[in-house]
Design a protein that fits this description.
Length: 89
């Protein structure tokens, strides 16, 4: 299964590193990543393969959300099929 991970918040050192580390700790492979800084706002979208994850998707998503809440970021992880359905015309 592939997932879309989005991260938005005030730019600070280590956001990409920490989110990537959380993926690695849960055996989630990052397939693609794009990020940009809009003035002082950090924005990132990741495409990740969760098929080999050591935890279920809900637990992984909750881990990312909790990290975001504790660090002033909004982090969402959603199944690729849900993301695609939401963005169909």
């Amino acid at each position: 299964m592939r997932a879309i991970i989005t991260v938005v918040g005030k730019d600070m050192v280590g956001i990409l590193a920490k989110v990537s580390n959380l993926c690695a700790e849960n055996n989630v492979n990052i397939l693609e990543v794009t990020q940009s800084i809009l003035q002082d706002m950090f924005c990132m979208i990741m495409l990740a393969d969760t098929s080999q994850s050591t935890v279920d998707f809900t637990e992984f998503s909750d881990t990312l959300t909790k990290y975001g809440e504790n660090n002033g970021l909004v982090i969402h992880a959603m199944h690729e099929d849900i993301f695609n359905s939401m963005h169909r015309i």
